[in-house]
Amino acid sequence: MPNYLPNPPDHLTRLAILAYPGASQAAVLGLAEMFDAANRFSTSGTLDVITTDGPAPAEVVVLPPAFGNEQYLAPSAPLVTWLSEHTQRGGQVASACAGAFYLAAAGLLDGRRATTHWRLGGTLQKCAPDVCLVLDEILVRDGPILTAGGLMSWTDLALELIGTHLGLSTLRAVGRHFVIDTGRREQRFYRAFSPPMDHGDRAILTVQRYMQSHFSTLPSLTVLAEAAGISSRNFLRRFKAATGLTPRAYIQALCIFEGQLLLESTSLPVAEIAHRVGYENTPAFYKAFHRRVGLTPGAYRARLRR
Questions:
Q1: pLDDT band for position 164 (50/70/90)?
Q2: Does residue 38 share a domain with residue 184?
Q3: Based on the domain organization, do 79 and 17 belong to the same domain?
Q4: What is the CATH number of the domain that holds 83?
Q5: Does 74 share its domain with 221?
Q6: CA angle, residues 130, 135, 138, in degrees to nearest 5
Q7: Residues linked to residue 139 through DSSP beta bridges, in sequence order
Q8: What is the spatial distance between Cα 255 and Cα 287, in angstroms, rounded to a whole number?
Q9: Domain identity same for 173 and 287
Q10: Backbone angles phi and psi of 211, in degrees to 5
Q11: CB 97 within 8 A of CB 148
């Protein structure tokens, strides 16, 4: 990641916010306001910011998230061509949430690490089979490509660009002004377990529903195969093909997600929550929870519970 070394005082960076069809207007305006505030606090350069719905001269192009629509699934050909040519000329592109689909359409994510909203990961992978998706992270930089995940990750994206082009002190000043955290977050803090249910394998779908109701009893492979009405070997193969997970990993994800919900909504001791979701050994629950969520149960409760 960048060291946030500030630009010289007279440095001007041209930055275009691309208000593509269906882009969140709140994000478009919010990005412009954050960059405007950064210019007021900066003593190490200036961001020359424009908002455009089409090709425009810029060093950095920012694609906001979309909200309540799927227009990003059919990006405009001229915009896609422009993005491709922009990077070929040495320009930088940055996206938040669904904005990554424009980068995918331009072929800019092929062979690169990138992220998007965790719910859109499967769809983006189909659009860009060669992308290395990192859905646990809020921000991922790979060369001239900067991607952010989550609808509100445009704030993280703005801070990253401010830090890169105007320096760490300006980044922190903007954070204080807007009263937002400037430390790095992770998307997995907020990510729900949302397994695929549209794979078309009815036997596996039956088992998924069974697991949803019985995960805390940690059903065996034999029990699950019987619920599917197929052999254990065939069940293992089909389950992994349909869900992308082994049955054991799937059950653990269900257990941990239920633990997350209980931590958010109750005052139950962690040991009691561990027991309710199928863990007799509380330290084992701690370890599995931290591995999946990136926080201890106590830290998760402190962050998410109101």
A1: very high
A2: yes
A3: yes
A4: 3.40.50.880
A5: no
A6: 120
A7: 148
A8: 13
A9: no
A10: -65, -35
A11: yes
Q: Report the CATH number that the domain containing residue 268 is assigned in CATH.
A: 1.10.10.60
Domain range for 214 is 202-304
Q: Can you tell me the distance from the alpha carbon of 162 to that of 284, in angstroms, rounded to the nearest whole number?
A: 41
Whole-number Å distance between alpha carbons of 157 and 149: 9
Number of domains, the chain: 2
Please check whether residues 102 and 224 belong to one and the same domain. Answer: no
The percent of residues in the chain predicted with pLDDT above 70, rounded, is 96
Same domain, 50 and 158: yes
Residue 198 — very low, low, confident or very high, per pLDDT cuts 50/70/90?
confident
Domain assignment of residue 5, yes or no = no
Whole-number Å distance between alpha carbons of 135 and 58: 28
How many other C-beta atoms can be found within 10 angstroms of the C-beta atom of residue 298? 12
Domain-located, residue 6: no
Which of 136, 158, 189 is the C-terminal boundary of a domain? 189
